[in-house]
Amino acid sequence: MLGKGVVGGGGGTKAPKPSFVSYVRPEEIHTNEKEATEKEVTLHLLPGEQLLCEANTVLKCVQEDSCQRGIYGRLVCTDFKIAFLGDDESALDNDETQFKNKVIGENDITLHCVDQIYGVFDEKKKTLFGQLKKYPEKLVIHCKDLRVFHFCLRYTKEEEVKRIVSGIIHHTQAPKLLKRLFLFSYATAARNSPATDPKKHAVMFDTLQDWCRELERTKGNMKYKAVSVNEGYKVCERLPAYFVVPAPLLEEDIEFFQGRGIPIWCWSCHNGCALLKMSALPKEQDDSMSQIQKNFSDRIYRTVHRPPYETAKTEDLSTNFLSLQEIQMAYSKFKQLFLIDNSTEFWDTDIKWFSLLESSSWLDIIRRCLKKAVEIIECLEAQNMNVLLLEDNASDLCCLVSSLAQVMMDPHCRTVFGFQSLVQKEWVMGGHCFLDRCNHLRQSDKEEAPVFLLFLDCVWQLVHQHPPAFEFTETYLTVLSDSLYIPIFSTFFFNSPHQKDMNVGKESQDSQSRPLNLLTVWDWSVQFEPKAQTLLTNPLYVEKPKLEKVQRKGTHFKHQRQLSLPLTQSKSSPKRGFFREETDHLIKNLLGKRISKLINSSEELQDGFREFYDGWHSRPPSYQGLLLPHLEGPEIKVWAQRYLRWIPEAQILGGGGVATMSKLLEMMEEVQRLQEKIEARHHSQEALQAEAASPPRTSGRLSSLFPFALLQRHSSKPVLPTSGWKALGDEDDLAKREDEFVDLGDV
User: Fold this and answer.
1) Integer Cα distance of 487 and 519 in angstroms
2) Pairing mode, if any, of strands 312-316 and 386-391?
3) How far apart are CA 86 and CA 36, in angstroms?
4) How, if at all, do strands 6-7 and 67-78 pair?
């Protein structure tokens, strides 16, 4: 067993429950350590990456109830990642089905991806931080991409345990300086590597010409102009070197309050109205200064509000919308639902899944963001008004709402190139503080808030509701969210363009070599092979409004996590098979009563907004035109691929949307083969292209969480109580009790 690097064995049936099961004695591990070392996987280091500490004879555990099973190997920590190196033959056997990342392996954790570190002392789990007096027998690492790793250190030498545990804690939790990020080590080491042109993948908006072309594309160049007054960041370090303002605005107005109080153009609608954002003026106690600010604001406001020719509405996101604290608190609760240690914990939390989900408020925050974007669109489209978004620094919620509005209104932003350009324009050049919001430097938790992840979750809702309207897939959004924590890309590791230019500029001046080669995340060839990249694009993308939205067949649910919210009584009932036939009526009524409070308590939509919203949904969708989401409670779902992908119990083998997509792709390939036979003169060339563009195929059934699913943990579903349903009481009593219904999947 040791030769295969596995401790505890495998098996598909439920394991017994002793406190610890091991088929290898400790003395055998140490005596055979030399033999095992020869079979260890080689540690692959990126340019500039350095090994810091390591420990041998570590077991990477797979938790299943009270049984521990694991893979023997070596745990290492570098200045880029934590990596486990073991001889895992099961992973090699599934090589064809793996969606492999060339930078981050299955058992790699970048230091920036570490969320929390726990130690197990006498079966008790405690948070680890700072200097330790006692070292744990097991290390548990919770990751920001929601992976959970268990490393048993029981057979590791004491000195190695101290080094690896202390090293991991220090290099993942200690405050860092910006120039000490691995981003700079990698860029320096790769300085002489061939540089790729980032403009092949997105408009970078780092030149005046980029902004002028965007104005021309949106037909906004009649009322707005691109300016270079901030070139060299002479006026404001928060703003990019180039941006767009109303044409009547004078340059001295921009300089007056260092760029504050100035309407910054985001996008122009087909009717000539525009979406703008503005950072608030500093609050002044002095009356004379307050009057100066008021006069200045009134004059600037008239550049976008000139009735009856042009009107504007101001939307203050700092006072009338979400706060960063709300977003952070909601996500902190929400992510705990997916950081599952073992099968027992999964099924225990599944019983109260809906109430835990509701109490986190994350889905409600998503709904509020989508609703706010639709309100903005209604002003632009139906009322023909300019919309001016106001926020303290115009770099958080302004980025979120303006980006969502553009995704819904502009089909260009629903292409891969257009979406990547949108993120560059609104988030990177818009001065979103990625460094602080992702807490990459570990200097302050107070500034941390997953605003960009919230945006991606909102976009996923649109992708899920209107799949043919998007050129990219949910897998694209998932790997983009993962890329937030990979410090070889500069895209998400600076607070502003000024911060990036100043640090990269100084680095370039310190050396006589070539300038630093900072990568952008948009070159997906850095992370994925061409075959894997096909999973990032949607083969069912509708470029012309001919096809109707694909109606997906209902699936058979095994557990509550495969629903974000249960269906209300006003909606169509779920497919038979979710619950046993004899309990259908009881459970459907119960779920309707339990969740109706949430649905009915949502804020009422205003008459004008409701008319606009209902009017759009009453017509067939145009995938190359305006796109609105469904905002009703049950329509806002959990992004299953991102949040559930590491939980084997949450998978449906051969089911879910992936099964539907697989069948559609097979049909498309068959049609393509027929076309190739008809067009015989292009047969050889097109066949070659078709083969290169085919997504990865597997011999077995795909998981509903493909391509990320792991099938390493097997578990039995909870047993239905034998006391019968009568013992549970009548329907009215059940509706009042909190989460006392059970999951009945497949019993």
Assistant:
1) 10
2) parallel
3) 9
4) antiparallel
User: Which residues have CB under 8 Å from 692's CB, separation 6+?
Assistant: 530
Lowest mean pLDDT among 12-16, 339-343, 470-474, 650-654: 12-16
Distance of CA 570 to the CA centre of its chain: 32
Could you tell me the two tokens for 622? 């145009």
The amino acid present at 262, given as its one-letter code, is I
Amino acid identity, position 11: G
Name the residue among 536, 537, 367, 358 with its Cα closest to residue 454.
367
Phi, psi of 320 (to 5 degrees): -110, 20
Query: Residue 371 is encoded by which pair of tokens?
Result: 């609703």
Kindly list the distances between the CA atom of residue 213 and the CA atoms of 157, 251, 269, 687, in Å, as whole numbers in the listed order. 62, 21, 15, 37
Does residue 83 sit in helix, strand or coil?
A: strand
The amino acid occupying position 393 is: N
Q: Rounded distance, CA 68 to CA 9, Å?
A: 10
To the nearest 10 degrees (0 to 180), the angle between helices 474-482 and 451-465 is: 170
Tokens of 525: 């060839």
CB atoms within 10 A of CB 93: 9
Highest mean pLDDT of the ranges 575-579, 669-673, 687-691: 669-673
Structural tokens at position 239: 């703003």
CB 188 within 8 A of CB 151: no
pLDDT of res. 438: 97
Query: Which of 743, 737, 647, 745 lies closest to 355, judged by CA?
Result: 737
Q: Which residues of 170-191 are buried (b: 16+ CB within 10 A; e: fewer)?
A: ebbbeebebeebbbbbbbbebb
Residue 334: CB atoms within 10 Å? 21
Contacts of 439 (CB under 8 A, 6+ apart): 445, 447, 448
Q: Give the separation between CA 447 and CA 253, rounded to whole angstroms.
A: 31
Closest CA relative to residue 161, chosen from 230, 75, 81, 227: 75
Q: Which helix (H) or strand (E) holds 365?
A: helix 362-381
CA-closest candidate to residue 110, choices 153, 75, 149, 79: 79
Cα distance between residue 332 and residue 167, in whole Å: 26
**For residue 436, what pLDDT is reported?**
97
* C-beta of residue 669 within 8 angstroms of C-beta of residue 687: no
Distance CA 415, CA 421 (A): 10
Token pair recorded at residue 409:
């209104």
Task: Count CB atoms within 10 A of the CB of residue 676.
Answer: 17
Q: Which of 11, 87, 12 is nearest to 653 (CA)?
A: 12
- Rounded Cα–Cα distance for residues 342 and 349 (Å): 11
- Overall pTM surpassing 0.90 (yes/no): no
Give the alpha-carbon dihedral of 295, 300, 302, 303, to 10 degrees.
Answer: 160
Cα separations in angstroms, 37 against 2, 162, 399: 11, 21, 50
Cα dihedral 23, 29, 33, 38, rounded to 10, equals 10
For residue 99, how many other CB atoms are within 10 A of its CB?
17
- Could you report the per-residue pLDDT of 584-602, keeping only the tens digit for each? 444 444 444 444 444 443 4
